[in-house]
Amino acid sequence: MSDVIEWPDGGFPGIRINPEFLLPEITSPEACAAALEASTDPADRVFVLLVEGHASDAAELLAEARYKDPESFRLRAFESEVLRVSHRYDEAVELFKQLLAEVAGTSNEALVYQYLGRTHFAAGHIGAAVESFTRALDLRVEQSADAALIHSSTVALQRARDVLELAS
Q: What does DSSP assign to residue 5?
């Protein structure tokens, strides 16, 4: 679709968001491995396992990490991501909606909308994905978020709109 360098940042070294499928992919295994080796945050390992598609391994590590840090927003969001990677989209959407109710009005709201949009997109609910990505982009612009985050939401929204247009 485009050169990997142009793909939106995936939030971890060596990982970018594939603009066609709107899912994170490891684009530099070396950079990812080096960052993972240097990290002491179990959420980083969970994230990489999710990107690799290892939902059961991610779920196991996530359970351990959540036991030690039950209030971690990132770990709580990854619970829904485990469901998405496991193709349990309806359950993932419900968990994201619960999380959204808790983070409304905070800087994490846009991220939850982005994840929710990704889940809807993967499930084939393109209209709902457009709505979620629109909200994520609006919030990120409103909050003067980092340009990489705004770019990620813009790419996701445009891709979802393109898919919706092709379907109609």
A: G
Type of residue found at 158: Q
Domain holding 142: CATH number? Answer: 1.25.40
Question: Exposed/middle/buried for 143, CB within 10 Å: 0-12, 13-18, 19+?
Answer: middle
pLDDT in tens, 101-147: 999 999 999 999 999 999 999 999 999 999 999 999 999 999 999 99
Task: Specify if 102 maps to a domain.
Answer: yes
Q: Classify residue 37 by burial, with Cβ atoms within 10 Å: 0-12, 13-18, 19+.
A: exposed
130 found inside a domain? yes
Q: What is the DSSP letter of 8?
A: P
Q: What is the DSSP letter of 16?
A: E
For 118-129, the pLDDT digits (tens) are 999 999 999 999
Q: Among candidates 95, 103, 165, which has minimal Cα distance to 130?
A: 165
Q: Residue 12: inside a domain, yes or no?
A: no
CA 145/CA 138 separation, integer angstroms:
10
Inter-residue contact 116 to 130 (CB < 8 Å) = no
Helix and strand numbers (H, E) in the chain are: 8, 3
Q: Is residue 153 part of a domain?
A: yes
Q: What is the four-CA torsion angle of 38, 43, 49, 55, rounded to 10 degrees? A: 170
